[in-house]
Amino acid sequence: xxxxxxxxxKRIRTSHDALKHEPISIDLVINADGSFHSxxxxxxxxxxxxxxxxxxxxxxxxxxxxxxxLNYSGFRPFVHDxxxxxxxxxxxxxxxxxxxxxxxxxxxxxxxxxxxxxxAFYVGNRKNGLDKAVCEFENQVGVKERAGNIAFRxxxxxLHEEQVILDAIIDRFxxxxxxxxxxxxxxxxxxxxSDFPVLNxxxxxxxxxxxxxxxxxxxxxxxxxxxxxxxxxxxxxxxICTKCAKNYVEGLNWLLSNGNETVNINKxxxxxxxxxxxxxxxxxxxxxxxxxxxxxESIDGINLLDNPDPGEISKLFDSVTQGDKxxxxxxxxxxFYSCTLSGAAARxxxxxxxxxxxxxxxxxxxxxxxDIAIRAYGETRFAPLYALAKAGNNIKSSNDPTNARIATYLxxxxxxxxxxxxxxxxxxxxxxxxxxxxxDGQKKEAITPEKAALIRFxxxxxxxxxxxxxxxxxxxxxxxxxxxxxxxxxVMESLQRAAQGKDINAGIRERFFAFASTNPxxxxxxxxxxxxxxxxxxxxxxxxxxxxxxxKLRELCGMIxxxxxxxxxxxxxxxxxGYYHQKQHDYDNAKINKELKPxxxxxxx
Length: 605
Fold this sequence. Notes:
Layout: H1 2-12, E1 19-30, E2 36-50, E3 63-64, H2 66-70, H3 86-108, H4 116-124, H5 130-140, E4 150-154, E5 157-158, H6 163-183, H7 242-257, E6 259-265, E7 271-277, E8 280-284, E9 287-293, H8 310-322, H9 325-329, E10 335-344, E11 347-357, H10 358-372, E12 374-376, E13 379-381, H11 385-391, H12 401-416, H13 423-436, H14 449-462, H15 481-500, H16 508-518, H17 520-541, H18 543-557, H19 569-590, H20 598-604
Parallel strand pairs: 1-4
Antiparallel strand pairs: 1-2, 3-4, 4-5, 6-7, 8-9, 9-10, 10-11, 12-13
Helix pairs in contact: 1-7, 8-10, 10-12, 11-12, 11-14, 13-16, 14-19, 15-16, 15-17, 15-18, 15-19, 16-17, 17-18, 19-20
């Protein structure tokens, strides 16, 4: 995984190893004599600057935070010592240390004439330079902008962007690398060479990690003696050279943050901005997956997992059916990579790693849509991956980590054609039973198309090597006992709703669904008596509907010899699908048969 990330970082990097593009939020404008002119808060821009693997104990040349540049602690400087709180004393001490690091870094480049105004700002003309700038900082810079990087500007020139400064940074970096390399010849475990040194220093921080620290998280780090062996300390253990470390860090940061700001218009006509990632998908509040290809190539098929368009899915089916000539000829095709990760304090937890050919991933996505297809209200539907993951969670909260865990399994199943675990089926059934037995006075939640699609997907994927394969819509020839029992239950519910109306407090679905789906024999013994009463009442009010439902009930009961004593987990899923398919089948028939029109309202409810 590290190797592929390093290769990707190498592909996208455009600057020297000594440089990195950093954001600028504030221009500190000074005159040629070092006197302070003004602060200018600007819209954040990205420019090349000195690269740092970690800010801890370091400062960047000419471009850094207010703490480093101005010795700014966030407290007003004129507060007397006796009035200072412990918090203020601690903050001032920290900013003082960081400011000294900044000045020490500046001292290294004191021979550059272009920096003479900056040295005058700090030393030669300090009263009109640094001291005045510190007093004016809070007056001229808003609270939100104060946390950004400050750049020095003299005569409309940002000093750290000048080529002479960049060349000096590169020269010093290369000299340090040569010195370090002369002392050791360790082989990098990623690139397999000793062209660059392997150092005991942090590789760099990864930003925008879900549930991670704002300052960033480390993918590889060591901080305890227990991790030391063979006289290797800290990051010497990882045996990754400085070149590969920079590449994988920059590649990972790019994958986690690259994208564009988009504007969506809601139903009320109001616009709302939304950041659309290009190589990242959030699977939950604490988990995200990033993906890329070895060679640059479009991977638009991935977007169908979130936005399944029937037309595009049909094209995908056709392309897979026709096959790919490159695969037939045995030519090495492009590779697809995916890494699922979460933040764990200041570190990154890798939850899944996928490496597969791009052609195979497309074929597997086509199989995914074939397996999650479900009949819903007169059409075949394909649910988004996140909707399926949410349907499988028993806890109705977008921040619950279970959503992310289910989504991770589904992402893996979509790309690798793998089999999802049965515990997801358990979670779905629990959610269905909780909803059906809920007595909180709110509208009861039936088996939605998303739940039905996920149940069918899990059952079929787990039965691929032999077992009952359930179709996307009602199959009158399928005589599986659990499936038929679910259909019988759906007809019984329709009988009750047709006879008593839809405003009954608690119907058989709310009272008996969990019982009938686990212990059908005792449950259906009671339900049969209720259904006969409903048929008798319905014959006086809607005789045509009574005849049709009674005939359907007898037909379904004739498909099984007897009601089983209990159902296994898989059979409970089949029961739920049988119930769903029968409800959808009745809904479709009601549109063409006027006697069944009352079932339309029941189906929609």
